[in-house]
């Protein structure tokens, strides 16, 4: 049985302009011990997926359709009590900005202890032992646990957050852009810690990032999201032999992955308005290969076993890959 | 003028505006329609003094223990209250705006001296100080106004300085400087218009505080003995123990004061939301 | 820490400057007394020599700047001299009156802060409801209402009409003596209820509005999401949020105490409470200037010190600024 199933998830936000479909029919599966990378530009809805899974959507957002199942149980059908009991114990979070993820007026230790206390009866001494053990695991000095968050550097805080995520030994860890706002060197350390959890402890993981390189290094399966929809979904073939023009564009932005690209190329334009999204393929306005057919909804095509692409032109992928390496292709259209 | 219309967009702002207009009319025409003078004794038909009478035809709101007409006193009192409120508001805002403009615009030593002066002013407790000054000199409305001005100017001074500081760093100011405009011209043409809405806000708050402080001082017996005011009425009623028996003497000045102060507060609240749209979300 | 120390010394300097200005104004004011200052304490059947001797004793024949320096020094050392009319030192009188004032202010302060925080926290947490709107509107109106009229109204209703509570004073005649006996007596409590209620009705608005608005801000903070994801019950999250919302309140409390002390004058008159404010009014009416200037000085100093405490306290209370 899969650990986490997300099926046709739809999340909407009430905005002043109307309802925004932040997540629109997203499906994926995480098996035990697997790391799934969810990648896309900022604002594509990937963080919203994480929030929906953790049940911490802001008041303006709500799940409008689909299902999230953890170990076969639908989260939507649970009572608040049941939900609260499974939070953190089953699904824990390493959040986007460790800067503000810790309550500034409590010590780090008390915030970890609080997570334990909310779910299991454990004597204070054993709790402290567990926290010290976890601090070692993430490379923090255990005697710093009594410090306040502001006494930690950004990297230390993020390690503390990783320790906090591990404190109940959850089945799944959601890491939502865990390296945002950190120095490049620290980013690397944090990612190594997270990879450790996955490799050594066999933790299942949902790794959310805008960085194709991070996904490529860490993930078993990859979901590429754009404007609330899945564009491409598959194994490492997604970055080795991408089919979707958007995936090609994302790979271009990271030189060590770029498909025969010589220089860093970024995708021109901005994501579409989600209150009134365009008909058909959502990427069409920015896609250098768009044709008239792209005005109709693209089919989901399985290009190889377990590798699905939402594009009308998968047959021309070979040509796309070649042309995508040429910076001229991604020049701003002369419109 | 746009500001006034926005105040009327809020039901509470409209209510406040209506109350203030009514009180203003009473302040102007009140003494003319008052049946008696503020210190005039009302007599019965048999020439005895009409003392501590509940409301009757001869004295609409009843009379005091000395036989004075509460209704007439209230009308005369409205005039002094609004006079103090208006003059102290104008005085404090003119002074505060001038200090704030000079401090914020010229900076440096001017700023340092003026701001330390403001800090000192913030350290002075008003009521005790005003009481001492009044008891050592001759109590009068003018002195009360002067004291309120001395007390109030500090707040607009600080706020307007902050506003000027933020204006001064905007490009259009140094563009004007570069174009060779004089200090006076920049202050008058570019800074003052952006500061005036704030001055207006503090003027309104000044009216409210002025009226309140005058009432408090008069209630404590430090008001002008020759001017009838709401505070003086409350003082007389309190001294005479009117709370026990003569509700008609206590309520009119107290209700008038509360109504007026709350009305101004509602206007300033609506106006503040106009100036600071962020407040609307809160 | 050195930044904090620097800020502290700057504040202290400003306090000294303000105090010096206030003292100078007081000195000038009391020297502007109409007529000879000696006339006030001089008895009619004193001889010229005795008056001269007394003046010499009081230093009234010295040049003004000697008197000025002596005045500043005396005030700074709390040597206020003797009351003209009461057979006590001014310091003793003031100490007694301050204690009485605190006996009214302190309970009101505690109730306002505790109750105001709870109301404000709930209003901010459940934003947008009718209850929240009503709370805010009530708070704003109470905030602008003239408290001395509220006091008179309360007195009219509860003391004179309903006769539930005594109309004023701290104790009934023949009540308990001694500070501890007094403040633990039911008689004192009965006298306290009305003035305390009036004080609370005004002072509570500050904590309510302040905690509510900082609550609104904290509600959107990332760490609140994490707490929720941790599976904590709602009330635990509310505790976290409230603790954060309390930070700005700490500074406000000190400022509020200063305001209380000033507004106190009116309430002490209305409720015949033998405190510092009432003493000032009586002293001015009796021309007991020694007591009056002492009272003003003590009030100003307390308010300034409280503001200093307010500025500094925040630095210590927020772990981030330590």
What can you tell me about this protein's structure?
The complex is a heterotrimer of chains A (335), B (282) and C (322). Chain A has 335 residues and is α/β, with parallel strands linked by helices. Chain A has two domains: 4-224, 3-Layer(aba) Sandwich (Rossmann fold); 242-331, no CATH class. Chain A contains eleven helices and twelve strands. Chain A is globular, with a radius of gyration of 21 Å. The mean pLDDT of chain A is 85. Chain B has 282 residues and is mainly α. Chain C folds into two domains: 3-76, no CATH class; 90-321, MetI-like (MetI-like fold). In chain C, 77% of the residues lie in helices and 0% in strands. Chain C has helices spanning 2-31, 38-41, 48-58, 64-76, 90-125, 130-144, 147-161, 179-183, 186-203, 205-219, 222-229, 234-270, 276-286, 289-317. The longest helix of chain C is centred in the last third of the chain and has 37 residues, at 234-270.
Quick recap of the structure?
By secondary structure, chain B is an all-alpha fold. Chain B has 13 helices and no strands.
What is the radius of gyration of chain A computed over CA atoms, rounded to a whole number of angstroms? 21 Å
Please, how many helices of chain B? 13
Main beta-sheet annotation of chain A: 8 strands, mixed
CATH class of the largest domain in chain A: Alpha Beta
* SSE string of chain A: EEEHEEHEHHHHEHEHEEHHEEH
CATH topology label of chain B: MetI-like fold
Task: Tell me what the CATH architecture of the largest domain in chain A is.
Answer: 3-Layer(aba) Sandwich
